[in-house]
Specification:
Rossmann fold; five-stranded mixed β-sheet; alpha/beta; Transketolase-like_C_2; transketolase activity; Transketolase_fam; 302 residues; THDP-binding; metal ion binding; single chain
């Protein structure tokens, strides 16, 4: 997991990190390699095993952040972020710099079915004032997201996938600045006829759809938008340079489409609960695939 690698790489530079999960520490990439576990016998341990109690974990993170001197990070699956909502709201309200890491971020979870497949959670987290939500597209964006978290002053939600995603062409050069600004043009053409704006693992879907359209002579820009909050903090000139008015724009995100009208004229998303099947099949059946995305663009241009 990219986030796990990044976290351990930066630990030597940020020794105040404390991290753990609600019985899912390894699954969400919050294992601090070589670090002792916080316990009654060793209160200096920086690895925390919270147990299956997400709400308590959130409250502990907020308390540690308000105490100061540490950067507390805790995680679980995204669908269980609902159990943590009071603590997340309190972190945002009080400016407590806690890091909430939520993985397994879409119906790509697969066979566990709708109970474990988040669809409304990402958008609902964006509703919380003073919380920065980051949903990176690949390993390079994950590294850039952690940089934003370390350097920032507000609580952050880092949203990660279960399924693998390729390292995308261009992110090595563009992600560091692009993620810090919330969004950036990842793939472009001189005069795009359409724009695809996506987050997380769906950026790869958007890139593939854009390549299909390009082969048909439809020039398409791809915008990666990992953080709405950071993007909205940019000046109008930058925002309009990335997402100019007057060009048909289609959003691609494996979650509810409510809210995307801010940026897009059409949406590819999931406005229903998922299904129990392999993650790739669920995504495909619900239209999160390049073929469907490309057709939505064609329909916008018709």
């Amino acid at each position: 997991m990219a986030s796990q690698q990044v976290l351990n790489a930066i630990f030597a530079q940020v020794p105040g990190i404390m991290a753990g999960g609600a019985d899912l520490t390894g699954n969400v990439g919050l294992t601090l390699k070589g670090q002792t576990v916080l316990s009654a016998e060793d209160p200096t341990g920086q690895q925390i095993f919270f147990g299956v109690r997400e709400n308590a974990m959130g409250s502990i993170l907020v308390g540690a952040a308000l105490h100061g001197g540490v950067l507390p990070a805790g995680g679980t699956f995204l669908v269980f972020s609902d159990y943590m909502r009071p603590a997340v709201r309190l972190a945002a309200l009080s400016g407590a710099k806690a890091v909430f890491v939520w993985s397994h971020d879409s119906v790509g979870v697969g066979e566990d079915g709708p109970t474990h497949q988040p669809v409304e959670q990402v958008m609902s987290l964006r509703l919380i004032p003073q919380l920065t939500v980051l949903r990176p597209a690949d390993g390079n964006e994950v590294a850039a997201a952690w940089k934003v978290i370390i350097e920032g002053e507000v609580p952050c939600a880092l949203i990660l996938s279960r399924q693998n995603t390729p390292v995308l062409a261009g992110t090595k050069e563009l992600a560091a600045q692009g993620v810090a600004r919330g969004g950036y043009t990842l793939m472009d053409s001189p005069s795009p006829a359409a724009i695809l704006v996506a987050t997380g693992t769906e950026v790869a879907v958007a890139v593939e759809a854009a390549e299909m359209l390009s082969a048909e002579g439809i020039s398409t820009r791809v915008v990666s938008l990992p953080s709405w909050e950071l993007f909205e903090a940019q000046d109008e000139q930058y925002r309009s340079s990335v997402l100019p008015a007057g060009i048909p724009t289609v959003s691609v995100e494996a979650g509810v489409t409510l809210g995307w009208s801010r940026y897009a004229s059409a949406n590819v998303g999931i406005d229903r609960f998922g299904a129990s099947a392999p993650g790739s099949r669920v995504l495909d059946e619900l239209g999160i695939n390049p073929t469907h995305v490309a057709q939505v663009v064609r329909d916008q241009l018709a």
